[in-house]
Amino acid sequence: MTSSTTTVVSERALLLLEIIAKAEEPPTLNELVALIELPKATTHRFATLLERLGFVQRTRDGKRYEIGYRLTALSIDAMRHSFQLAPRRAILSGLVGEIGETCNITMLDGAEMVYLDRVESDWPLQIRLKVGSRVPLHCTASGKLFLSLAPPSLRKALFQSHPLRKHTPRTIVDHAKLEIELDKIRKTRIGTDEEEFIEGMTATAVPVLDSKGNICATVAVHGPTVRLPLARAIALAPALMKAATAIESTFHGP
Q1: Would you put residue 194 in left (φ > 0), alpha (ψ -120 to 50) or beta?
Q2: Cys-Cys with 118: which of 7, 104, 227, 236 at CB 3.0–4.6 Å?
Q3: pLDDT tens by residue, 173-182
């Protein structure tokens, strides 16, 4: 294979990856053929290559393509080490200085939330979850917020593939009750966690939106319940929302 041929193959594979990553819903092979304007056999060959490398994967029914574990990990690493880290950290630090509680930025990674950045308050009593920590969806403020704003099909798939594990006596493990909780969060756009993940910890989260208006990350605050009861955590939401709006430009530009 000549260098020019290799370049063309690489460009088309990357273009296909970009199409899959930007799709509102996982596309079928026929939809990919129409979008990339290549023969079906060629498109299938590129999709198979990307799947083998872990950059894309099939949906549960095997008929559609979605981003894979390797692309998700790469995107999170890129966000953690990008030149925009300093502006995000400055915004987060300003938020912590304003409200006096530990704040973090999280993103969805598979069926978990991962801490992208975190700034701690000066209080001696802390609940420490370092950058890179992974937390469940169904019992954390950020996770429940993501679930509430996710398409029903994705939420159903996550519920089917990941049982609702009980972390504390307050963890919601009944699907019907969790759906009621998510409906409330969807209306307020404020995720809440009142000792559902860790006993003695309360948290709230608000969305960071991408250029299409979809949730791509969250800004959250958490602290010991004795110092940060749920009512106070919810009252901090306007400050979190202001910071989230400022952080949005570090994800997709002004």
Answers
A1: beta
A2: 104
A3: 998 999 999 9
pTM: 0.70
Strands 102-109 and 215-224: antiparallel
Please report, for the domain that includes residue 116, its CATH number.
3.30.450.40
At residue 169, the pLDDT reads 95
Do 137 and 57 have their domain in common? Answer: no
Write out the two tokens for 47: 């999709």
Q: Which residues pair with residue 205 across a beta bridge?
A: 191, 220
Reported as a single tens digit per residue, the pLDDT across 135-169 is 899 999 999 999 999 878 778 777 777 788 999 99
Confidence of residue 127 (pLDDT cuts 50, 70, 90): low
Chosen domain end from 13, 43, 67: 67
| Same domain, yes or no: 63 and 85 | no
Residues 114 and 33 in one domain: no
Total domain count, the chain: 2
Same domain, 63 and 185: no
Query: Structural domain of residue 225, as residue ranges?
Result: 72-252
- Scored b (16 or more CB within 10 A) or e, 237-250 reads bebbbbbbebbbeb
Q: Same domain for 61 and 80?
A: no
pLDDT class of 81 with cuts at 50, 70, 90: low
Asked which of 67, 92, 108 is the last residue of a domain, the reply is 67
Whole-number Å distance between alpha carbons of 219 and 205: 6
